[in-house]
Design goal:
about 20% helix, about 425 residues, about 15% strand, nine-stranded mixed sheet, alpha/beta, single chain, binds magnesium ion, four-stranded antiparallel sheet, Alkaline Phosphatase, subunit A
């Protein structure tokens, strides 16, 4: 799937395709194909099937109507690179070293080659693998961090966000420009949705729909600083760059006719869980490393219970000094630190912009996300023995998790080298300004 740049900077998307060797066999006994669709900066409230009143997303709505729609699905970081690292490895970005912030075109680091990606999990099973669209997990010397060095047979796309090129592509295809009620953002989203429609049509034409798991989600919350062109978090608080729900909770849909019954699940799940789930469905071995993901097959095929009891939330710049910023245990979320972000500027909520500086909370702010998904009303802890017991459980879960966390060497702190940046005129100087072709 190619990037779709219409009307905003970051509506590009990435698709990961994992095809088994029995591509044209629709027999369910054979290992399934997997198609992961990963939108960029798409908010919880952006799709028609998640309640947006003027978005035009007929194909994603079709996936949701015929598949399983998640209400409590999380990414692991409110910015791109670390979130993508966790999707592909089933591990928090702090373990793989994809922090702080994001990788740049000339970054010396990238997703370490000794990390095991979903593609590498599937290769021993005979799968053909491809990554298409935005990568954003490093380029490095001689392209050493590109997808073809991380288990993918093929790669077609841009290696980082397209607003790191020398200009901002603002493009709307003829089939999408001016076609929606929502303006440029809506047009870009409609084009994105059209691309997904083309993909579904291809699956149908090749007769593999009933043997293919299509999973759709997004890498982080909406970039609210772009005003109406920045996406929408729906009822959730703040957006990109923050550890509030708007930055971390994502739309997610699993589609597999004949295996996944249509419905809605409120079970807690994460991009971390995709690797173990795919491994389970393919009969592949899990990597022998500390995984943070759990198998969610039971949620998918039986609409059953999640094995996930907690979800932890790191800021864009994780630091062992502070540890995690927030933790969700069951329906409760505790904020130990809160902070606004540039990416979430412009909202009326004064907790979201960058001038909402780092604030420690002891005891933590605790919200009941079922009663209050907008994180408006922290629970009063004083004089509430049951909530004091909850607080102790939360603290214990935090201690246990942090005891398991070994921060990997930061790949992003290795800095940048202009000579590493892909350039259409490799011998020119000075870079990167001379790379305008
Ligand atoms: Mg993103």
């Amino acid at each position: 799937m190619l990037s779709s740049h219409a009307g905003r900077r970051r509506m590009d998307n990435i698709g990961f395709f994992f095809l088994n060797t029995f591509l044209f066999c629709t027999c369910l006994a054979s290992p399934p194909n997997f198609v992961l669709l990963f939108a960029d900066d798409l908010g919880f409230g952006d799709l028609g099937c998640y309640g947006h009143p003027s978005s035009l997303t007929p194909n994603l709505d079709r996936l949701a109507a015929g598949g399983l729609r998640f209400t409590d699905f999380y990414c692991t970081s409110p910015v791109c690179s670390p979130s993508r690292a966790s999707l592909l490895t089933g591990r928090y970005q702090t373990r793989s070293g994809i922090y702080p912030g994001v990788l740049y075109p000339g970054s010396r680091g990238g997703l370490p080659l000794n990390e095991t990606t979903i593609a590498e999990v599937l290769k021993p099973m005979g799968y053909a693998t491809a990554a298409i669209g935005k990568w954003h997990l490093g380029v490095g010397a001689n392209g050493m961090f590109l997808p073809t060095r991380q288990g993918f047979d093929q790669y077609l796309g841009i290696p980082y966000s397209h607003d790191m090129h020398t200009h901002y592509p603002q493009y709307a295809g003829q089939g999408a420009a001016g076609r929606t009620l929502r303006g440029p953002f809506g047009d870009a989203l409609f084009e994105f949705d059209n691309t997904i429609g083309n993909l579904l049509t291809t699956l149908e034409k090749t007769g593999v729909t009933n043997n293919t798991l299509v999973f759709f989600t997004s890498d982080n919350g909406p970039e609210l600083m772009r005003l109406s062109r920045g996406g929408n978090a729906g009822p959730l608080k703040c957006g990109k760059g923050t550890t509030y729900e708007g930055g971390m909770r994502e739309p997610a849909i699993a589609f597999w006719p004949g295996t996944i019954r249509p419905g809605v699940t409120h079970e807690m799940a994460s991009t971390l869980d995709i690797l173990p789930t795919i491994a389970s469905l393919a009969g592949a071995k899990l990597p022998q490393v500390m995984l943070d993901g759990v198998d969610m097959t039971e949620i998918l095929v039986n609409q059953g219970k999640s094995k996930r009891e907690t979800m932890v939330f790191y800021p864009t710049d994780p630091d062992e000094k502070y540890g995690l910023f927030a933790l969700r245990l069951g329906k409760y979320k505790a904020h130990f630190y809160t902070r606004g972000a540039t990416h979430s500027g412009t909202t009326p909520d004064q907790d979201c912009p960058v001038f909402a500086v780092l604030k420690a909370h002891d005891p933590p702010l605790i919200f009941d996300l079922e009663a209050d998904p907008s994180e408006h009303y922290p629970l009063p802890l004083t004089g509430k023995p049951d909530l004091q017991a909850l607080l102790e459980r939360i603290k214990k879960a935090k201690e246990q998790f942090e005891a398991s966390m070994v921060f990997g060497e930061s790949q992003i702190s290795k800095g940048t080298d202009p000579d590493l940046e892909p350039c259409c005129n490799p011998q020119c100087i000075p870079k990167p300004s001379c790379c305008k072709c």
